Amino acid sequence: MQQLHLLDRYGWNDSVARQFENLLAAENEFSPARVVRVDRGECDVITPDGPIRARTIEPVCTGDWVAVGDHGGHPSVMHVLDRRSAIQRSTASARSEAQILAANVDTVLIVTALDGDVDLGRIERMLALAWESGAQPVVVLTKADAAENISQSLDDVRAIAPGATVLAVSSTNGEGIDVLTAMLDGTVVLIGPSGAGKSTLANTLLGEERLATNAVRGVDGKGRHTTVHRELFPLPSGGTLIDTPGLRGIGLWDAAHGISTTFSDLEELGEDCRFDDCGHLHEPGCAVLAAVESGELAERRLDSYRKLLRENEWVASRTDARLRQERTRTVKARSRALREVYRTRK
């Protein structure tokens, strides 16, 4: 397949081209595209001929690679390619569903501000989300120019982020931005709470004021949601950037691997426990509890590990219950249909 120069700026590469080959060969009227923004029932996509507005016959999210064709006289997403990675969280609704935040991501920038207390538990939760997706997490501590003790904050975060890079940056004075820019590769997504400085950081990385920003409220230290849509932009240094709204809730969804990777230091300690199925609660010979008692492992970190495991298990059980209910409804519907067939035969 020939190179599509406009899509090159939006992440097109040989791997993506290979995924499209069979599909486009079978359906010549389809055009390859990448989703840059999703609204209710429609989305903005980039095609080889430029941006268009398309209807979403299939569910899509920002970062998806899709095939666009004509449906009823309107450009429409006709096919969604398999995602090689996806940032997803559980929804706050009673329905057991996952919400996809971004697709086909290579790097997750976990953004936390240094101008207040750094919430280590929240960072651990976002790390679990990032590791589970298959992307590489980088913890970005923003507003370094307003920090009281950068060195201590960096040490604290690095201690809970094994395997992840941790950087302190400032969009105000440029501290650390060159190092961060050099690390960006492929598709990068920004996640974090409101007021963390995601939009300001995004503008800095984009080299222009593309996104609106608001000051954090002085009353409660919270920020407003200046970003209301997940949107994908090409980066001047190459690759693409997805900005996301501030995350109030970060529910886990099927994140056992992500939790295990986030707490790899704790699980490594657990290999020395007396019992293979040690729950690190009160069992004799527990190496994890011994590490807490000696000060090698912070009790807060063990509490966070237990909390995320419980939450993940609860979400899994809720999902299983929903699937059982769906199977029951299907069986009942079939039974009603059979009864109707027998009734009409009489």
From TrEMBL:
Pfam families: RsgA_GTPase. Binds 1 zinc ion per subunit. Transmembrane segments: none annotated. Gene3D superfamilies: P-loop containing nucleotide triphosphate hydrolases, Probable gtpase engc, domain 3. One of its GO terms (cellular component) is cytoplasm. It is found in: Cytoplasm. GTP binds at residues 142-145, 192-200. One of several proteins that assist in the late maturation steps of the functional core of the 30S ribosomal subunit. Helps release RbfA from mature subunits. May play a role in the assembly of ribosomal proteins into the subunit. Circularly permuted GTPase that catalyzes slow GTP hydrolysis, GTPase activity is stimulated by the 30S ribosomal subunit. This is Small ribosomal subunit biogenesis GTPase RsgA. The lineage of its organism: Bacteria, Bacillati, Actinomycetota, Actinomycetes, Mycobacteriales.
